[in-house]
Amino acid sequence: MKKLLSLIILLGILTITSIVIAGEYSHMQPKSTLSDIDVVAILAVIFGVFVFYLIPSMVCSIAAKRKGLTMVGFFFLSLIFTPIIGFLAVIAFDGKSEIRFK
Q: What is the pTM (predicted TM-score) of this model?
C-alpha cells in the first residue's frame, strides 16, 4: 500500500513537471514554420502524455485485472478521470463487486 501511494505521488510530481515544461513554450507566437524549440515542445508534450498518462492507465488496468475487476473498464476510467482516480477506484473495489472480470 505504501509503495502504491508513493508511486501515485511520484507520477503526480512528474506530471506537474511535464506540464510546467510544456507551459514554458506556450507563450510563443505561432509561426509559419516550426523552429527547433517548437519541435522540442511538441515532443515534450507527446512524451509527457504517453509516459505520465497512458502508461499509468495501463498499470491501473493491470492492477484491476489482478483483483478480478474489468481491465478495459478501469483503463478507460483512468483515461477519462486521470490515473490517480483510477488507482483509487482499484483500491476502493474489493474484487467481489458486480463488475467482475470472468
A: 0.54
For 12-59, what is each residue's pLDDT tens digit? 777 777 766 666 655 555 555 666 677 778 888 888 888 888 889 999
User: Residue 44 corresponds to which cell in the numbers above?
Assistant: 515534450
- Dihedral angle sign, alpha carbons of residues 6, 59, 50, 84: negative
Query: In the numeric block, which cell numbers belong to residue 55?
Result: 502508461
In the block, which residue shows the cell 492507465?
Answer: 57
Residues with Cβ within 8 Å of residue 57, at least 6 apart in sequence? 75, 78, 79, 83, 86
Q: Which grid cell sits at 78?
A: 483512468
